[in-house]
Amino acid sequence: MKQLLKQLFSSQRYLIRLILPLVVMMMAASLFAAPSFATGVYQIPDLPADNSTWVVDQGDVISRLNEGKISSAFADLAKQTGNEVRIVTIRRLDYGETPQTFTKGLFEKWFPTPEAQANQALLVIDTVTNGTAIITGDKVKLLLTDAIAESVASDTLSTPLRNGNKYNQAFLDASDRLVTVLSGKPDPGPPEIAETVQVEGTFKKAEETDQGNATVWVVGLLIAATVIPMATYYIYLAVQPSNES
Known about the structure:
Blueprint: H1 2-32, E1 55-57, H2 64-81, E2 84-90, H3 99-110, H4 114-117, E3 120-126, E4 131-136, H5 138-141, H6 146-156, H7 158-162, H8 167-182, H9 206-244
Parallel strand pairs: 1-2, 2-3
Antiparallel strand pairs: 3-4
Helix pairs in contact: 1-9, 2-8, 6-8
């Protein structure tokens, strides 16, 4: 019996040596997988020579149909007024980055001089947090004041997102308001918010379920790696005196 327990205890230690590296790898993957999808200013491509890019949807939240509508509206605005608007969506910001710092950095990358920035407006959203930011050039500010620009980002764009992440509606509403204001027409203002009673759902999203399952596996492996050898060792100590006697 004593020899059997020794062999069992030895095999358990061998098993731990196999399990622990796997546990460490799983925990490391869960910690570092998300940042690998982060987006920095340097990852956004430069504008083409003809400045024909109006929407950069790296967050993949705008349908092709609506992206075409928005791009067409912005192109017409540029031809008629010289004012240009661009929308950028990203999936996740780099560590330490905010929507404001990212937007400012991208604005300066695309339009490095005050002259190039003068008739530009850039609207950015991080689709993980739905954080928004907008920055405008000096000439654009004559029509699109800072107060209106902030309202576009925090009200017109964000209201549909707070009511079910309706990205297509959000960007259509925001683009319509921007085009109206930059065409010299009166500001239509933010959308009216209808009072609704929200019932919080009890169903988890697929991402939450996957993360929960992964956590359960990691915790289970850690507990097994700790409890099994301890239990085996105590059994070994309990049985050893009886065998020696």
